[in-house]
């Protein structure tokens, strides 16, 4: 089968013929129709490891959708021929494996393949950050940094659907920032400006937001603490501005913040299943109604994976990039 693998140099990807995988007892074999691109996929090509392995070669891709072709011996609740949304690894291929408890069946008459391969990963990431860890409740205020990214756009829509009173979204790109209000932002912030923190405090009447979703980290960490309300929740889900910095412990203490980091990489299957359960319970009705949906920037063929990764690397996209497999 065709698959997108890392080149031996670890810089970029290539299409290769690899062996078709066989499902273990709790896995399903999926004939893949579409794959979503995530920042982790790009970082994988740049030397970081996110566990997207596939036998002797490294097949990347953390989210995909397709048709179940084969069931493992311990799989229950799913059937051959069913359309499913999946998270896991090694998804950029004509066939991929997924743990059956992390597969979400869907109706292809209600959800497109482009939406199916992209939406659930971001839904789970943002629901876990905003609701589970951020303890968000209706009427609170929220600031989503990096809001023009795929996961950021979903975060804005979740905040709106759950009844946030103020929704701040940031982007350093003027064109992208101008679009954020279309997806729920009540105010937009340019974090490349020196006065961005002043603007946040002005909007929140000096208090800061109840929940700040941090996709930047790095040297933004101390300003992010100031932008978060005393006793508020600062949830770290990304480190686009740097992996480490000079952390002001005294500021953290004075503001009595709940500073929480979260990632799916270190979760057990049971933990990931619980994240999925909570997401489905709270957000499925908004997805089914179309109130929450992804912005699809562009769809590529599997063979155009490098082109798609280059667009992501240059931050030329607004929303999601998709690989489509015509199989």
Characterization of this structure:
By secondary structure, this protein is of the alpha/beta class. It has 2 domains: 2-118 and 294-324, Alpha-Beta Complex (Quinone Oxidoreductase, Chain A, domain 1), CATH 3.90.180.10; 121-261, 3-Layer(aba) Sandwich (Rossmann fold), CATH 3.40.50.720. It contains 10 helices and 15 strands. The chain has helices at 39-45, 113-116, 119-133, 150-161, 174-179, 196-203, 221-227, 249-254, 269-289, 305-313; strands at residues 2-6, 13-17, 27-36, 63-71, 83-87, 95-99, 104-105, 141-144, 166-170, 187-189, 209-214, 228-236, 258-261, 296-301, 320-324. Strands 3, 4, 5, 6, 7, 14 and 15 form a 7-stranded mixed β-sheet that branches. The chain has a 6-stranded parallel β-sheet with strand order 10-9-8-11-12-13, with helices on both faces. Helix 3 crosses helix 4 (150-161) and helix 3 packs across helix 9 (269-289). The protein is globular. The relative contact order is 0.15.
List the helices and strands and how they pair.
Layout: E1 2-6, E2 13-17, E3 27-36, H1 39-45, E4 63-71, E5 83-87, E6 95-99, E7 104-105, H2 113-116, H3 119-133, E8 141-144, H4 150-161, E9 166-170, H5 174-179, E10 187-189, H6 196-203, E11 209-214, H7 221-227, E12 228-236, H8 249-254, E13 258-261, H9 269-289, E14 296-301, H10 305-313, E15 320-324
Parallel strand pairs: 8-9, 8-11, 9-10, 11-12, 12-13, 14-15
Antiparallel strand pairs: 1-2, 3-4, 3-6, 3-15, 4-5, 5-7
């Amino acid at each position: 089968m065709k698959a997108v693998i890392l080149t031996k140099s670890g810089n970029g990807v290539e299409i290769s013929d690899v062996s078709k995988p066989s499902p273990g007892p709790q896995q399903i074999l999926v004939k893949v129709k579409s794959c979503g691109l995530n920042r982790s996929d790009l970082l994988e090509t740049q030397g970081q490891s996110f566990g997207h392995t596939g036998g002797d070669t490294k097949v990347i891709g953390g989210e995909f959708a397709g048709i179940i072709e084969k069931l493992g011996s311990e799989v229950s609740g799913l059937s051959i021929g069913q359309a499913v949304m999946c998270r896991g690894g090694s998804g950029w291929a004509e066939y991929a494996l997924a743990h059956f408890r992390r597969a979400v069946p869907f109706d292809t008459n209600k959800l497109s393949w482009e939406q199916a391969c992209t939406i659930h990963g971001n839904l789970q990431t943002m629901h876990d950050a905003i609701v589970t860890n951020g303890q968000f409740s209706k009427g609170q205020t929220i600031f989503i940094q990096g809001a023009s990214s795929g996961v950021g756009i979903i975060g804005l829509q979740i905040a709106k659907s759950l009844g946030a009173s103020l929704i701040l979204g940031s982007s350093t790109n003027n064109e992208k920032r101008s679009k954020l209000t279309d997806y729920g932002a009540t105010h937009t912030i340019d974090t490349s400006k020196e006065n961005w923190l002043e603007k946040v405090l002005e909007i929140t009447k000096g208090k800061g937001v109840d929940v700040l979703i941090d996709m930047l980290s790095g040297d933004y960490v101390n300003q992010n603490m100031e932008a978060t309300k005393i006793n508020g929740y600062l949830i770290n889900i990304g480190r686009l501005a740097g992996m480490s910095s000079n952390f002001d412990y005294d500021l953290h203490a004075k503001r009595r913040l709940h500073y929480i980091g979260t990632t799916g990489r270190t979760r057990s299957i049971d933990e990931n299943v619980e994240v999925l359960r909570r997401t489905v319970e709270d957000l499925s009705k908004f997805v089914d109604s179309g109130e929450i949906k992804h912005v699809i920037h562009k769809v590529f063929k599997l063979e155009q994976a490098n082109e798609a990764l280059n667009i992501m690397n240059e931050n030329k996209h607004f929303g999601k990039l998709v690989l489509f497999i015509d199989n």
